[in-house]
Structure formats: structure tokens, C-alpha cells
Amino acid sequence: MTTTPEAYVTIAGESSVRIPVPLPTDHGYETATVEGRFQCSSGELVAEGWTGLAVGALLIAADTPDDTTHVQVEGADGFTVCVPVETALDGVLAFGESEGAVASRPRFAGPGISGTRTVKGVRRICPVTLDPGEHPEAWEDLKLPAADE
After folding, report:
1. What is the pLDDT of residues 53-102, one digit of tens each?
2. Which of 30, 38, 18 shows the shortest CA–CA distance to 108?
3. CB atoms < 10 A from the CB of 104, how many?
């Protein structure tokens, strides 16, 4: 029996890749586990290990441009981060964690990515090329509350 995807994650590139959510068992992509404890913006410590699809392998499969300097990762809620490509290459699109299934899956996580910058419910990963001196924050939407809230 085939499960109908609830959504897709699109990895943009010359040969874009679409990953169905939930992830089928026969997905055919490289998996990886990254270790590390992350602290959410709530202050809660979560997971000691994340297991999922290797972001580096997904970027290669999507034929990411050679001049890519950063990767923009967007969640279903619009929360968007922009991280150096070197950091993203070691990350995972996590469907599981040390305690079981990931809530709001998949989640972008990895070494060098603080818990407040992991993205829940990832829907798009897009390579970007920033000019020297261009700030990655201009490519982000951290959905932070206004100062008077």
C-alpha cells in the first residue's frame, strides 16, 4: 500500500529533488546521524542525535551550482535561515531523533547549527550565492516576536 505524501521538501538546483513527507522506507537517499544536544528557543534541551537524509548528498543530487556560498532553509511556517554551505553539508534533514520520531518533521539540524536556528517542518532548501560583504541575515525570516509583544 502506498502512502500519500502530506507534503514535499524541495531541494532546489539544476536538477531539483522532491522528498515526500512522510519519508517512504524505500527512499533511496543517503542517511546520516549527527550527534549533539540542541537547546530550543523555549530553553528546552532536545535530542542527542538526529537521523535523517544527508543534506550534502541531497545538494549533490539536486546539482547545486558550484558558486553556492550559503543554503537557505525554509519551514512550513515560513521560518527561514541562511547558513554557510560548509555548515549545511554536515547537516541532516531529520526524520528521527534519539528519542524516536521528530515532531514537525523533517527538521534541519546539524553540527554548528544552534537549536534556535534548526528549522522544523522543512519544505524548501535552496542554494544561494552571496556577494562578498552581503549578509545572510537578509535572506532569513526568523519569525521573532515584535519588541512590544
Report:
1. 999 999 999 999 999 999 999 999 999 999 999 999 999 998 876 565 66
2. 38
3. 12
Output the pTM of the full model.
Answer: 0.85
**Strand ranges for 7-69 from DSSP E:** 7-11, 17-21, 31-35, 38-39, 45-46, 49-54
Cβ burial, residue 135 (10 Å; 0-12/13-18/19+) = exposed
- The strands making up 17-21's β-sheet, listed across from edge to edge, are 17-21, 7-11, 122-128, 70-75, 80-84
Q: How many CB atoms lie within 10 A of CB 14?
A: 9
Residue 73 grid cell: 532553509
Residue 105, φ and ψ in degrees, nearest 5: -80, 160
